[in-house]
Amino acid sequence: MSRSETLFASAQKHIPGGVNSPVRAFRSVGGTPLFIKHAEGAYIVDEDDKRYVDYVGSWGPMILGHSHPDVLDAVRRQLDHGLSYGAPTAMETEMAELVCSMVPSMDMVRMVSSGTEATMSAIRLARGYTGRDTIIKFEGCYHGHSDSLLVKAGSGALTFGVPSSPGVPAAFAQHTLTLPYNDIAAVRESLSRVGKDIACIIVEPVAGNMNCVPPVPGFLEGLREVCDEHGVVLIFDEVMTGFRVSLGGAQAYYGVTPDLSTFGKIVGGGMPVGAFGGKQHIMECISPLGPVYQAGTLSGNPLAMAAGLTTLKLISRPGFHDELTSYTSRMLQGLQDRADAAGVPFVTTQAGGMFGLYFSGADNILTFEDVMASDAERFARFFHSMLEQGVYFAPSAFEAGFASIAHGDTELQLTLDAAERAFASL
Ligand code: PMP
């Protein structure tokens, strides 16, 4: 028995499913989750001392690679000054200034402790600001696990086939309308009927929780247009795309400016952080300036700000995102070439440093149906072959993958050599 197997068996006694977040359990690919004891650069090391090239990156935050020395130093320096004060710090202002300077739509920002809190708070704000209750989201998009958002959701909810969770009162769910992703005609049609009741449209500008589905040209632009027509707040959930697809997120990459945006992952540099913000006149509705309540004991936590600020500064250097994007493109092209050579129907998607892998004969992946039509069972076999050979992709066919700046030629070769054998074995 491996140490991961032993640890997983013990974990299940007191932790539901042995994990503190469902997709970690490997349910959709089968087998035992790796228990990790160390991570550095492009690699994670499990409890059995096996090293893996990591394409999960803690589900997105580790854009610099693991254990970047400057990030660790910043956290160590802060450690000498205390863990949490529940009072303002200079670092929080620096963080707000930095985020607002990087992201086009941001006049003001508030820090929270997770992506879920960020989206939940942004939606409350949109509802408070508009005085409307109903929200629109898209099928297969995941915005965290708050009640209004677990309706036809992606990520673990999709992986486990319960996209609409028990425990969400019907009275909440009825205020969430779900439309097909990348279908602007459906949005126009819906808003022409119920536009005056809609507080906000929340969208992942690149859908990263049903694998990875970039927006078709015109989709995000169309959302901006219809939101303006109907007085609806447009929220880009950039928890995954923020600071990754470009320094200014998907909104800078695609040139569409939302009213509010939500962040997580990279903004905390691996610490528990989220953020939401946007136009000043909307953000001023938040307490203590306005009546929409929102708060957090650990919000703006100094250790988390130290890690996040250092990460944001390091990724601001010229050429950072081009390098990240180029690694990702070369890796995907390499996979495609090897799949083609092995005669395996395979297609990839990419937005900057995030990507999707599909066992599918489709030319492109544009919709939720395209994703669902891909072969998840074949993905699971590919996943295990790669894992066996020391390459760790996301343990689900419904999650995006992430490269880091620490991934270089060595990791590329390792990945592609492993993939050649994996495709041949399918
Ligand atoms: N929004 C998006 C787009 C996400 O990908 C996630 C998590 N993967 C969340 C929100 C929720 O963030 P968290 O897990 O930090 O609560």
UniProtKB/TrEMBL annotation:
The keyword Cytoplasm applies. It catalyses: (S)-4-amino-5-oxopentanoate = 5-aminolevulinate. Pathway: Porphyrin-containing compound metabolism; protoporphyrin-IX biosynthesis; 5-aminolevulinate from L-glutamyl-tRNA(Glu): step 2/2. Gene3D superfamilies: Aspartate Aminotransferase, domain 1 (3.90.1150.10), Type I PLP-dependent aspartate aminotransferase-like (Major domain) (3.40.640.10). It comes from Halopseudomonas litoralis. Its main location: cytoplasm. Belongs to the class-III pyridoxal-phosphate-dependent aminotransferase family. HemL subfamily. GO terms for biological process: protoporphyrinogen IX biosynthetic process. It is found in: Cytoplasm. Keywords: Cytoplasm, Isomerase, Porphyrin biosynthesis, Pyridoxal phosphate. It comes from the Bacteria. Its cofactor is pyridoxal 5'-phosphate. GO terms for molecular function: glutamate-1-semialdehyde 2,1-aminomutase activity; pyridoxal phosphate binding; transaminase activity. InterPro entries: 4pyrrol_synth_GluAld_NH2Trfase, Aminotrans_3, Aminotrans_3_PPA_site, PyrdxlP-dep_Trfase, PyrdxlP-dep_Trfase_major, PyrdxlP-dep_Trfase_small. Homodimer. This is Glutamate-1-semialdehyde 2,1-aminomutase. Its EC number is 5.4.3.8. It is an enzyme of class 5 (isomerase).
